[in-house]
Amino acid sequence: MAKKVIDIFPPPRHAADTIDTEEIKMPLPADLPEAGFPAGGDGVFNAAVRENPKPKITFNQVFSAPDRRKDIFTNDDGPGFLKKWGWRIAVAAVAVLAGMYFWDANFARAAVKIWPQTESFAREMHVLVDPAIGEVDAVRAAVPGFVISAEKTVSADSPATGTKSAQGKAQGSVKIFNDYSNVQTLIKNTRLMAPVEKFQPPLEGAESPWFLIVETVTLEPKSSAVVHVVAAAPGEKYNIEPSTFSVPGLAGTPQYAFITAQSFEKFTGGSNEIVPQVTKEDLENAKIAIQDSAKEEIKKELIAKTREQGLEIADENEIKFEIGVPEISAKAGDNAARISGQAPAKAEAIAYRKADLETLGRKFVSDQIPEGMICEESTFSVQYESAGIDEEQKLSSFDLAVSATIYAGMHPEDLKKGLSEKKSEEAKMFLMSRPGTQKAEIRLSPPWRLHVPRDLDRIDIETVFE
């Protein structure tokens, strides 16, 4: 079966792409010879490929420069640069401009710094604290006073200075055993002797290791009885641990080895020391000490109560105290190291507010500075100290000293109105034209902004003092 002709015409070629003539043989359908096409003897179509003719070069082409300009919208390879990227550049430019507009419309600000010529202002004044007024009186130079009181019962104690000797004899119980064959009676104050090593610290000199029976006891043969005994002498060394005892009064008799005693608990009560004792003078001193302590405690209570209300006491030396008679339970002769008691206490004082003194000071400065001058708030200072009771007014008083830095110029709100919507240079000239201005500086944001914003809230004014 004959094959189809797929393409007998090659693509166009330029002069530089010439090829030699060659014969191309392709199978053809059987009916092609009948159509008048020459066919070879083998039933294929013979075609000769000829090279393109060389173009003719004219005189004008030789002496005229070729036009190498390319269309910026199209070129041989496809769309031109502007056609491909132009819309992207336009969108980006619009976005940037929109962002700049949004930033300028919503975040535009003007930072203004002014260095004014300054003066120091300082004055002193005498101020009254008057409970009869409810607000600061600049005419009288008076601030409101407040009556504050506190009341409580205060407990305290005082030391006792008297002393006395406190001697005690150790005592305890022992069990006496009668292992003898006869009845034995031990009368009151019969001595029982413990081993000397039981006494700590050791016995010295004439000290004896004896304990005395406090009552007569009769013992049947092969029996026992519990009796109470007491040391023959005072002192802590007789507080012995459980021990065995002999009866020295039976020494030399048959009963000595058969009648013994034993304790099962440590003896107590032995002492020989100096202990404090309350005297009459101690009672009198205790009353004074308790009253002094009550006065100090009620003063602290009053100050704390005053400060809880945001106030300060005008003069602590003018606090009025009422201290009652102390109640003391101890009596002269009691063995006690300290004397306890309590006393009712009350205190009252005139208080004031610190803020009222500052308010009065500011009003005083405002009234005293020359017209057209402004007080820089950050430099305002007020100092005061108590001046006691004013002799003429009979009121608590203060000596007040105020100081501040003042300068000539307009108030910030007036400055903002004058700067609004002015160009940067115009705004600076406006500031420098004001009397008392040493130096001025204006910074606009964003950087491309040329005018001060219209909105006064977006104008920041800083006064710089050097």
Detailed description of the structure:
This protein has 466 residues and is of the alpha+beta class. Among the domains are: 1-68, no CATH class; 77-104; 146-161 and 277-352; 166-273, Elongation Factor Tu (Ef-tu), domain 3, CATH 2.40.30. Helix content is 20%, strand content 35%. It is built from six helices and 27 strands. It has helices at 59-63, 81-107, 280-308, 354-368, 412-419, 424-432, and strands spanning 23-27, 44-48, 74-75, 78-79, 109-116, 118-130, 142-144, 146-159, 162-168, 171-178, 184-186, 191-193, 210-213, 217-219, 223-231, 244-246, 259-262, 271-277, 312-313, 320-323, 327-328, 338-352, 373-375, 381-389, 396-408, 437-445, 459-463. The strands form eight sheets. Strands 12-13-15-10-17-16 form a six-stranded antiparallel beta sheet, with no helix packed on it. Strands 6, 7, 23, 24 and 25 form a five-stranded mixed beta sheet that branches. The radius of gyration is 61 Å and the shape is elongated.
Per CATH, the class of the domain at 166-273 reads Mainly Beta
Number of strands: 27
CATH names the topology of the domain at 166-273 as Elongation Factor Tu (Ef-tu), domain 3
**What is the tally of helical segments?**
6
Structural class assignment: alpha+beta
CATH architecture assignment name of the domain at 166-273? Beta Barrel
Rg of Cα set = 61 Å
Quick one: biggest sheet?
A: 6 strands, antiparallel
Main β-sheet, spatial strand arrangement: 12-13-15-10-17-16
Concise summary:
With 466 residues, the chain is an alpha+beta fold. It has six helices and 27 strands. Among the domains are: 1-68, no CATH class; 77-104; 146-161 and 277-352; 166-273, Elongation Factor Tu (Ef-tu), domain 3 (Beta Barrel), CATH 2.40.30.
